[in-house]
Design goal:
Structural class: alpha/beta
Radius of gyration: 14 Å
Strand content: 15-25%
Number of strands: 5
CATH class: Alpha Beta
Distance between the termini: 20 Å
Strand order of the largest sheet: 2-1-3-4-5
Shape: globular
Order of helices and strands: EHEHEHEHEH
CATH topology: Rossmann fold
Number of domains: 1
Length: 135
């Protein structure tokens, strides 16, 4: 089973990620942090060890860049950015702060499903998801 920390403040995007995982037949333990401060608390104060972190940049309290700064050298899990920002400076900054990948949030659900399936195929440990995940 995939262990995923999803750091996302929009409940509709959380639902899209969960539905994409379901449609890709990916069994996942998804822990959700609705702001950057909560994400840091989860990683510092619980025993949850994600296989990877899916991080939005535009978050309340502590933004995604601050989360990246705080986590530098402290977590082994890859940190994959999934954000609405297409700004090239944001992309450069995210990679400079240790992001493993950077994706812009898609506009259609089919694109969400393809994006999430692709991210999971690339960043989750173990054998690849079932063939239908590649639809």
């Amino acid at each position: 089973m995939l262990h995923l920390l999803l750091v996302e403040d929009h409940s509709s995007d959380v639902l899209l990620v969960r539905e994409a995982l379901r449609q890709c037949s990916i069994a996942a333990d998804v822990v959700i942090a609705y702001d950057g401060e909560h994400a840091i608390d989860i990683l510092n104060r619980t025993s949850f060890k994600p296989d990877f972190i899916l991080l939005d940049l535009n978050l309340p309290k502590v933004d995604g860049f601050e989360v990246l700064e705080h986590l530098q050298g402290k977590v082994a899990a890859p940190i994959v950015i999934l954000t609405s920002s297409e700004n090239s400076e944001d992309r450069k900054r995210a990679f400079h702060l240790g992001a493993s990948a950077y994706f812009t949030k898609p506009f259609s659900f089919d694109a969400w499903r393809r994006t999430i399936c692709g991210i999971v195929q690339r960043w989750s440990p173990g054998p690849p998801p079932p063939a239908e995940a590649a639809r």
